[in-house]
Amino acid sequence: MYLKIIKRSLYNLRDSYLIYILSSSFAVAVLTIFSTLINDPTLRSVHYWNQTFQSFMYFMIFIFGFFTFIYMTYVGGFFIQQQKNEFRTYKKLGMSRWIIAVIGFLKTFIVQIIAWLLGMLVAIILQKFVGMMLVYLMHVKLNFGFFLDPMVIWRMLKLGIYSTFLLSLINGVRSYWIVRRQKDSHKLHLNLFFRSIFGIIGLLMFIGGILASLQVFQSVSDTQNIDLALWRVLWIVPLYFIGTYLVIMGFVPLCLYLFDHIKLFSYHGINLVSYKYLRKRLLRNTTIIWFITEMSALALAILVFCYAGYQVVYQNFSGAYPFEVSAISDPAKKIKAEFAKEKTDVTHEYRSKIKRTVSYTFDSSSNQYEPKLISLMSYSDYHALPKRIQNKNPHIGPDDFLELKNDYQSLTPGYRSTKHAVQVKGTKSIKNRSVGSFFPYGYMMFSGYLFVVPDNYYHNVQSESTETYYGWDIKHSDKLSNKFLKKLNQKNKNPYVITVHIGSTLNKSYLYEKDDQKQNHYRPNEYYQNGYVRQADAKHIIDQTSGFFLFLVSIFSIALLIALGSLLTLKVLLRDDNEWHQLKTLKKIGMTERELKQIVRRETGLLFGLPIVFALVQSSLSVGILNLSVNQSAFKPFTVIGSAFIVLYGLTGWLTYILSWRGVKQRI
Amino acid sequence: MQIIVENIAKDYGKKRNAVHAIKDVSLEVSAGEFVGIMGPSGAGKTSLLDLISSNERPDHGRILIDGIDLTKQHDRTLAKYRRNKMGFIYQSFELLDSLNVKENIILPLVLNHASKNLIEQRFQHLNQLLNISELADRSIDDLSLGQRQLIAAARALINSPEIEPTGSLDSNSATILLNYMQLINQKENTTIMMATHDAFTASYCSRVVFIKDGAIFSEIVNSGQREDFFEQVINMQRTIGGGSYFNVPENN
Ligand SMILES: Nc1ncnc2c1ncn2[C@@H]1O[C@H](COP(=O)(O)OP(=O)(O)O)[C@@H](O)[C@H]1O
Ligand SMILES: [Mg+2]
């Protein structure tokens, strides 16, 4: 008989269970696939897999598994809640609480095992496909073979059984607890007055959070004091978290209450019913709305962080390799000869001269002027370079100075400060200048600072060492063979070292060059010159990294949307008896379908609208922090990612609304 | 308003274990009649009223109200129809517990976007007849069964409906209401249909139709004397048998 009871109630809630099983098995499938990918022989032959991606993958599996478990626990609670009345009836009929707990346990067990096995089955079917996608995204030219490690399958199976057992146990306990009272008190747990007080406090906290974060941005751009900012953020985050919860718990219901009591609004069509109905639904669903808010905020932040992380890698790459091949004059001749020999399709050749000398530059770590190597390029030479290079630095005119220094220093305080003049040996010191970080032939081709200076200034400088840089844009690949490169490397990889001889004054300091002795450490006043750099050496890293990021981001976004969508859909579908009764009554006394639809629409709108609004505000805070630490504006990607998220989220909401309305229509 | 029911039938449930709730019922109610519907539990009283009030659609047959075939109307038209032309008192009252008493009563008017003046005016009018103003701000949860019935009736009447299909009125405290219904039935020519188990309640009607197993069993007409009619109803109940006629509230 118990089996019959279980079968019946599973059947009664089949729509909701179906949604749950599908979303859970998706999560299980992703987990299984990730676990098999980690030790996949194909991927292990990819250089970077073993080094970095693998540990990243472990981390992702952990995060994913953790959230999956939270999700399952959470949703399990809905189902038990939904069957409350049924369980109470059993108890009235004389069933013991233990038996009810066993029923709750078995039901969860059945659903959970189905979801898990289904997920693993999907994983086995899709493993090759997902692997192929990953390999494709990473631009790795490998055939992805079908590979399933029996150990992994066994481990996933064990994990499935453990987690099923645990979740069933949790739900068994829940069932046991839920029948202890015969009726829920209809009174709300907290009266409106206290709720409103909390709600207003929450609103103040939330607004306070916004103001505080705006102030942080302000103060950081003034003083560039990151430590202090991060410290303050620790104070701001709880303001948002708690504030949001209190607003949803108290302030929004207060607004609905006020609307409801202003007859101008409430005595108007369905408002009379819907404000009250919405308020009830809201009070019941406070936690879930909050949960979804914070999850969405987190998701948006993670997406933007991934994007920005990728941007950093990419910028680093283009900062190192603005040309397909760059070189200094000595290897340049050999490379050009090789291009001609191999019939390489060179689309452009660029060339710039530089002068090198000694300068007194202010060092903010030692807080004093120190003699350093300085390289100078004339405005005309700089101006002749492709726009894509100039655009990455601040714009300058023919009479302006531009200081280029390495991007990794951008986190040090005073990176952009031009308070201290630069004294160049034998000529005027440079006071006003813009600061950029994009070196024309790639930062790996330069040591120390590079200054772009007006032409007449350039001519006045006495060079102690000159060099000509070459850069080639090439269609397709540079066709440089391994044999040729090997020969080139023997002599020209690091052709020479420039040493600054430190004299008692600037004028007594000077440069001298010597051939690279292949020594292992350089002293601080020694600078070495690279012979050449090729994009081809690093391109696959970028391809692999971006492919890998893209893969993770897309899987995560899909998973997140499925989680959010199914959570809300379930929450909307699973109305309790009282709520069904109200809708039925409304229909009976002559509410049209359109009006009922409007109520469902408002409800879905509120359930979906609230989280996204709060999530957006919160995630823009994290994007703000990102701006500070990456030193580049993440607001554009944020807008793009944010609006993509809103669109997808909106689609989920719309789907929920359709499903919800269908559910309502069927039942009333 | 005149109601003509022609050979209607209604099944509930899927083919194999379908319940034939109404099997071939025909009935004519002329404008201004006050018709009681009686029969044992499960006979099909509620189903019949649900069909006439267009909450359900019949599987066969037609229902004409003032010559308009309800079975051919769009759902939206029917909803407006229910809201404006009919008033209902359901067995389980169907009051919304999230609204207070007054809001429950005026709900049909508010849904119609009636002006605030009209709403107040109608409410005061009902108040004079049913004396409900001191309940106005109470919550539905705090009312007794008799009070709930009164409120359900007030909601049914607020739109001054032309027909009034009524679920069973089983409470003795409903005498005011019954008197009032008789009054509007006579003064305003409202057609009333009412399902009940209670012979005393039924004795207010001008005609009582008895249903058994989803079909009309017989009917008796009130010739004018309420006591005589009451006796007749009791006798007919005995004849039908097969069910409880005690004053038990039904679960709908
Ligand atoms: N929505 C429904 N689904 C299935 N069966 C129903 C439904 N409504 C009524 N019935 C069945 O139809 C028959 C008549 O019910 P009802 O009209 O409620 O009787 P009464 O009101 O006279 O007690 C009963 O057997 C009942 O079980
Ligand atoms: Mg009934």
Automatic annotation (TrEMBL), chain B:
Extract the InterPro entries matched here: AAA+_ATPase, ABC_transporter-like_ATP-bd, MacB-like_ATP-bd, P-loop_NTPase
Q: What CDD domains does the entry give?
A: ABC_MJ0796_LolCDE_FtsE
- What domain of life does the native source organism fall in? Bacteria
UniProtKB keywords: ATP-binding, Nucleotide-binding, Transport
**Would the keyword Transport be found if you checked this record's keyword annotation?**
yes
Is Glycoprotein found in the keyword set?
no
Pfam families assigned to the protein according to its UniProt record, in alphabetical order: ABC_tran (PF00005)
Q: Where is the ABC transporter domain?
A: 3-238
List the SUPFAM superfamilies.
P-loop containing nucleoside triphosphate hydrolases (SSF52540)
Cite the GO molecular-function annotations of the record: ATP binding; ATP hydrolysis activity
Q: Which family does the record claim for this protein?
A: Belongs to the ABC transporter superfamily.
Q: What is this protein called?
A: ABC transporter ATP-binding protein
